[in-house]
Amino acid sequence: TEEQVVKHLDGHMKNVSKNDNKTKAVMKQMREDEEAHGLAAREAGAADLPEEIKEVMSAVAKIMTSTSYQI
Fold first, then answer.
1. What SS3 state is found at 19?
2. Is the dihedral of CA 9, 10, 16, 18 positive or negative?
3. Is the terminal CB of the chain with fewer CB neighbours within 10 Å at N or C?
4. pTM
5. What is the pLDDT of residues 12-31, one digit of tens each?
């Protein structure tokens, strides 16, 4: 979900060098875009996913992230 992506980006933002303004700007824009997508979806009538689905999505995201570090 967009909410999960925002949390994920917030976590990565903590690891970005304070001098890396380009990365921070890109991540800030990505965060704003995700928040806007979430708002648009809710305004269009989207419903929240069940907690179980969110947990599975979170687990898969962690696998993808840890795998990408290995590549």
1. coil
2. positive
3. C
4. 0.70
5. 889 899 899 999 999 999 99
- Tracing tokens 């967009």 back to the chain, one arrives at 2
Copy the structure tokens of residue 4.
Answer: 């999960």
Tokens 């824009």 -> residue:
29
Alpha-carbon gap, residue 19 to 30, rounded angstroms? 19
Alpha carbon distance 6, 28 (integer Å): 10
Q: What DSSP character marks residue 30?
A: H
pLDDT of 29 reads 94
CA dist., res. 30 & res. 41, Å (int):
16
